[in-house]
Amino acid sequence: APSDQQKIVDKANGDAEIILNENDFIQRIVCVMPEGQDVDQDITIARMNNAVSPPQTIVTSLGCKTVFCTVCTVAPCFDYLPPTLAGVSSLNDITQGGKAITLTGDNFGVNQTVMYGNYEMTVVEKSHTQLVASINAGVGDDKLIKVIVGSQTHADNAQWTFKYDSPAFTDLTEITKSDTNPGVPTTGKDAVTLLGANFGANTIPDYGATGPILHIGGERILVSSYDHTTMTFDMPAGQGMDLPIIVNVKGQNSTGADTFTYNPPVITSATSTSGGLSLTTDTIGGKISGEKITLAGENFGVRTKSWSIVLEGENEGDTDVVVTDDDIFSWSHTEIVFYVPEGQGRNKALKVYIGGQEATLSGGGSGVACPSDSTTRFALACFNYKPPQLWSIVEPYDGNTAGGNAITLVGTSFGISGATVLIGDDKYQANPDTSDPLQVINNMRMPPTNCHVTSQDHKAIICTTPPGWGADLDVTVTVEGMSSSLTASNSVNGTFSYDAPVIDFIVGNKGGDASGGEELRVYGKNFGPQRTYVNLTIGGQKCENAYWTNDDPIFDNKPYIKCPSSPRTTVDQKNITLNVAFSTSDMFDKWSVECKVGFYGGHEELCADCGEPELTGYVCEEDGLTLPYSYTGWWRIMEQVTNDAGELALSSTAAEKCHEEMTTGTRSECPTMWPCMPGYACLGNNTCEVMYDQESVRCSDCADGYFKLNGQCAECPDKPWVIALGIILVGGTAAYIGSKLDKKKVNLGIITIGVDYFQVLAIFSSANVEWPQELTDLYNILSAFNLNIDLAAPECWQGADFTYDQKWMVVEITPIALFSGAMVLYVAKYFWKKFKGRKARLHSHAPKLFGTTVTIMYYTYLYVTTKTLSVFNCQPTDPSDGFQYMTEVGTGDGICYQDGSMQQKLEPYAYVAFFMYTLGFPMFCGFLLYMNRVTCYKDQVMKAAGKNDEELKACGTYKFRKMWHRLYHYYKPQYFYWILLVLFRKFMIAVTSLVFRSNTLFMLSMTLLVVIVSYALQVKFSPYMSTAEYKKIVDENSAITDAVTSERMMQLNMIKQQSNRSKAAKLGRESLINLKPKMELSFLHNYNTVESSLLFSAILVNLSGIMFESGQLTGTYKKGLTYFIISLVCGSLFYFTWVLLTELWTAFYPDKPFLGMPCLNFSKDADEEEDKIRESSLVFDSNPMVGANGALGLSEADGKKMDFLEKELNKMWANVAEKDKLIKSQQEEIRSLKKGTGASKFAGAAANVIAMNKKKKGFGNVDKRKTKGP
Fold first, then answer.
1. Which of 24, 47, 279, 621 makes a 20 to 30 Å CA pair with 591?
2. Most confident of 1006-1015, 1192-1201, 1234-1243
3. Lowest mean pLDDT segment, chosen from 63-77, 203-217, 461-475, 1189-1203
4. Rg of the Cα trace of the chain?
């Protein structure tokens, strides 16, 4: 703190003066540092202490150095910043030095040193940021520049590295040959001076003792004197060209591509000991024979340095014989003498290279001609060795075709290396004419092939034989174009042959198949290494297209012979010979052949092809089979081949059916296969299904306990007579029910519809369809509707022996028998009536008798037609054996179109039956209906109107109806002919089954077409006349019904009713007392609906047959369809049965509901209808059909009488209605009397009825009188 006021200047604030008072405290002093350098500089502060007297100076130090101080403090020393080098103007100079370079940077200080390497620059100018220094003389490179200031220097930086320039030659004239300079000979040259730069000087430290280091061609040469620009030395003896000249100055090599070349060698002459260029020695060389070659000339250089003397090969790849140092006899710069080296070849061109320079002839000549294959060469000299001489082969003389055998060749002049040995067939022909088979075969012979040389000297060659083939092959030794061959003609000991092929074993993909076509593989040795001509014979038969191959990895791809398809031969042990690789093997006798699966044959027989068992019947499932088995569905029959004397004597069947291989006489019988019918009857190996006779040929007969049904054997019933009795009982019952239904005027159309339907289904059982057994059994049951005689199983009857033709005759005679029986009954009945004295109604029994016959013929039409056509239903077996058989008989007696066969015997009768019944019955029905078409139409209208017999008589249809009504009574009047369409449908189904029998699917399709057309016609026209349609039909044909009404008819009706009531009163029959008019029963079901439903069901069954036959159904689908069809057929049968039973019940019990169903009680509706009739006043208006020219043909007078009668009848009917009411009440009284008061009371009631009838007798008299009116 100052003691008094002081002034200081604040430089930081523009030199502002600061007045320091006595009490002010100085905290900071700012000063400007002086220039300087280095580190660890101490800072001291000196101030005056005026507090003492005299005043004293107080020194304060920061304390970084040990100095005297009054007050010392601890503080860091002060350092000047180190120098930094930022740039150098030049980094090189010549070895003489003298270049001034500029260094720039910072903090260079006041005293500094600039070093580069171990050299120091001379600083001529300096500042804190720039130095100028001079380079001194020196050598070397990689000298790092450093600026040193005191103890400080900058960091090393390779960027600032100095080097002296590299040495370089600028003038080599003294050692370069030119027109003015003879150059340097191989003998060398003294005191050679070369000019250049940067060679350095001997005054430079650390360099003068060493000086520059000179190399020429890699050889160091001592420099005798030098300075920065010159260098002097002695050139030594040597040779070479383009020898690099390199001088090294302190690690720096000269950079120029400077070279030096000795003068080239020149030859003036080259001679051998023999005095010429042809050598007398063989390839063994001149050291043995003493033969030398002398070369004369200059610049041959030094023996110890680089040189090369070569006898160059004639062609590319030939051996270049090189003269080695051992071959040198003498060497100088002007002459070289050497022994002929061991070698080989011809036209060896002499080449001399001294230090890489090829010698030339003196005078610049081209030399002597030395030819080659490509061109003629010129050389200093051209020498020839002796050619090789092959004398013989040392054993072995042969070897296996796989090669690898070492053979030794003996001779001379085989050379030192590169000899080739070729083994080949002299008949080999390359590029053959493919049209010449011999040339093609010769092309497969062994071409000259190299025998690999493993050892070679001048007198012997050992080579390994190549894979090859053939015998007496040529062996040729070639040494650089000079050859010697050993052939069969010039060899004393023979030439080389490969071993003959040897068969070890044979493999066949079928194990030895005599039928041929087997791929054989012949394994062994010496088959040759490649494909050659192959001739393989098996049992004297050539295997065509046999060939050599090696594609079997199992046998390590060794060669083998493949026969793609062995020849067909007899069953036996076979001798096999093989010619391959142009050699033939010995006989191989260990191969035997037999017939394999699919073929059969015995010793010394050719194998017969069994073919596909399904098509041929032959089963050959074993190897070595001599006799085949029969396949399922086939039967084996042995046919005679030879007679008793063993001579060939073929039967016609044997000639046609036996395999040709079996008819050579080696066996007495040959097997033939015949398909069975049905196929499943034969189980194979001549065994039959249990239902077929095992002793019968082709299982054609049924076994005991079985019988033929639709061409197949079925099991006999336990008691066959029960079936026959059942058929009789069923037939009798049906006849009785039919008679009753006919009496009750029940429409039998429903029965006809059902029978037609089930007859069609039964036909399917005989179709050639693969039906499941369940459906076949069902169809056979339904064949009862066809009145199938087979169902009676007559063959099963004890002691019976029925044949098919007998049963067929029974069926065909049945229509004739029915008609004949009807005629007999008719005549017998007629004479019986005569015998009884009757004179009237002698023929009244004829209509019912013949009508019943027609009905039976209708129901049997389909069965008889099918049976008739079965004679023509001849089908081939599957597959065909060349014959056709009746499908219902089979192969036993059913052969067709053969003289004396059952089919031929039945055929005339079948034609008669076909025209008489199949065509005759429909034609008869058609003719009858056509001729009486008006009658049929009117009669159906009368039926719908409920007209009685008297009215039918008046209409003129009574007699026709009585006999023929079963032909048309089921149909509407306009479709009275519909029975013809039904018969045509049956006819078409039967004919379709015959015509298209060979194609089951097409047959089913045609049958389906017939049924579909029938269904379409049925749906479109609805031809059946049901009770519900009666009123509509009557309304549509009222003119016909009204025309029948007449006074005469009314009179007859009233008389008949009165007579009946009188008889009823006497007899007490209530049914006759009831005056209910006769009415046709009204049924629940419409027949057209029933017919359509059953036809649709038949369509589905037919479609199922197509599905089964298609073969597309298996397993669950087939079983599902089977059960569906069974359900469908059973459902249709139930539907038909239910409809039939409801109608039968209604016919027999009209007053009782069916199964308790009131909807089926028709008595109430009938009574109500009767009341309406009786209560109404039946008034007959004038008939428009009656007139002068009316439809009835009455005269005008008769017309008036008819009008009068109608009026009287109206009055009478009014009285009748009143009386009928009374009668009805009395009937009720009679019923109550029967139940309560007994017979006495009933007798009284009957007496009252009789009395009333007496009163009505006058009604008849009135009628009689009235008929006499005007």
1. 621
2. 1006-1015
3. 1189-1203
4. 72
| E strands present in 515-571 | 520-525, 535-538, 541-542, 547-549, 560-563
Closest among 150, 116, 110 to 131, alpha carbons compared: 110
Looking only at the bridges linking them, the beta strands covering 360-361 and 266-272 are parallel
B/e letters for 552-562, b = 16+ CB within 10 Å, e = fewer, are eeeeeeebbbb
More confident of the two residues 1196 and 519: 519
Q: Are 622 and 604 in contact (CB under 8 A)?
A: no
Q: Mean pLDDT throughout 1109-1125? A: 85
Report the candidate in 287, 202, 314 with the shortest Cα–Cα distance to residue 249. 202
- Alpha carbon distances (Å) from 868 to 812, 913, 918: 7, 7, 8
Q: What is the 3-state secondary structure (H, E, C) of 57-115?
A: EEEEECCCCCCCCCEECCCCCECCCCCEEEEECCCEECCCCCCEEEEEEECCCCCEEEE
| Tokens, residue 941 | 């209208």
How long, in residues, is the chain? 1270
Element (H, E) at 213: strand 213-216
Task: State both tokens at 665.
Answer: 């006489």
Q: What is the dihedral of CA 719, 723, 725, 727, to 10 degrees?
A: 180
Q: Phi/psi of residue 493, each to 5°?
A: -95, 5
Mean pLDDT of 512-523: 90
Nearest to residue 477, comparing CAs of 412, 529, 428? 412
pTM over 0.90: no
Q: Round the average pLDDT of the chain to a whole number and report it.
A: 80
Q: Which residues contact 634 (CB under 8 A, 6 or more apart)?
A: 613, 617, 673, 674, 675, 676, 682, 684
pLDDT, tens digit (0-9, with 9 covering 90-100), for 649-695 = 777 787 888 888 888 878 888 999 999 988 889 999 999 999 999 98
- Which residue's entry shows tokens 């076949």? 776
**H or E element in which residue 1095 lies:** helix 1087-1110
> With contact defined as beta carbons under 8 Å apart, do 238 and 355 qualify?
yes
1217, containing H or E segment: helix 1196-1236
Angle between helices 1115-1148 and 773-782 (to 10 degrees): 20
Specify which residues 221 forms β-bridges with.
214
What's the rounded mean pLDDT across residues 919-937?
Answer: 92
Question: Distance between CA 298 and CA 363 in Å, rounded?
Answer: 13
State residue 1246's pLDDT score.
39
Q: Which residues are 336's β-sheet partners?
A: 295, 331
Distance CA 343, CA 415 (A): 6
Residue 331: burial class (beta carbons within 10 Å; 0-12, 13-18, 19+): middle
Out of 106-120, 644-658, 1049-1063, which region has the weakest mean confidence (pLDDT)?
A: 1049-1063
Phi, psi of 515, deg, nearest 5: -75, -5
Dihedral sign, Cα of residue 1099, residue 1103, residue 1104, residue 1105: positive
SS3 1004: helix
Token output for 45: 């502060």
Question: What confidence tens digit (pLDDT) does each residue in 1021-1032 have?
Answer: 999 887 778 888
CA 854/CA 117 separation, integer angstroms: 152
Q: Cα(25)–Cα(18) distance, rounded to whole angstroms?
A: 13
How many Å apart are CA 802 and CA 643, to the nearest integer?
38
Nearest to 896, CA basis, from 997, 783, 791: 997
840 secondary structure, DSSP code: S
Q: Which residue has the tokens 């050719």?
A: 606
- Report the Cα 293 to chain-centroid distance in Å: 83
Rounded-to-integer distance, Cα 866 and Cα 885, Å = 16
CA distance 418 to 462: 13
The answer to whether the beta carbons of residues 175 and 223 sit under 8 Å apart is no
Coil, strand or helix at 188:
coil
